[in-house]
Design a protein that fits this description.
two-stranded parallel ribbon, 168 residues, 6 helices, mainly alpha, three-stranded parallel beta sheet, 45% helix, 5 strands
């Protein structure tokens, strides 16, 4: 996980830990802070048989860097990677869920709709941005940079975003 103190990743780890315990597995938690070196350390632990498999909750490494490690044990990613044949993929359909949420708000009469994410990179962020852009086109709404808030990982960031919205 990139951040153990992030509410999303905390809940994800809680679920993984619960299931691992039920199946008599032990968990080693590696907090990467989205640092490539830390992710490589985890992959090398797999290579050297210090661990049996890896669940990558969110990654910074590209697929070409990860691929050579696939032969050392199971790799599971928490993102849509159905076209990558050497990893298992467990994910939320961010495109569809974002599209549904945007339509819900629109149907409630809202026309100035934005969104807030942690980081701009990564496949989940890509699908959210694509859903947002397609929604705006479909509804003939303008894209406004000030309606997209990035680099928000903590509750305090949410407070900052609300203050920015109020000031607009």
């Amino acid at each position: 996980v990139p951040f153990a103190n992030n509410p999303y990743f905390g809940l994800l780890v809680e679920g993984i830990t619960k299931m691992a315990y039920q199946h008599q597995y032990h968990i080693v938690l590696i907090q990467t802070n989205y640092e490539k070196e830390r992710e490589l350390e985890a992959l090398n632990m797999l290579k050297h048989k210090q661990i049996d498999g890896i669940i990558i909750c969110s990654r910074i490494l590209d697929w070409n860097t990860i691929k050579p490690y696939a032969g050392y044990g199971p790799l599971v990613v928490c993102e849509k990677a159905t076209d990558i044949d050497y990893v298992q993929s467990v994910y939320v359909d961010h495109y569809q869920s974002f599209t549904s949420a945007l339509h819900y708000l629109y149907d409630k009469g809202h026309r100035q709709i934005g969104y807030c994410i942690g980081r701009e990179t990564g496949s989940n962020s890509y699908y959210r941005a694509k859903a947002y852009q397609n929604f705006l086109k479909e509804k003939d709404l303008p894209f406004l940079d000030e309606f997209v808030f990035t680099e928000n990982d903590y509750f305090e960031d949410g407070k900052k975003v609300v203050k920015m919205i109020i000031s607009q």
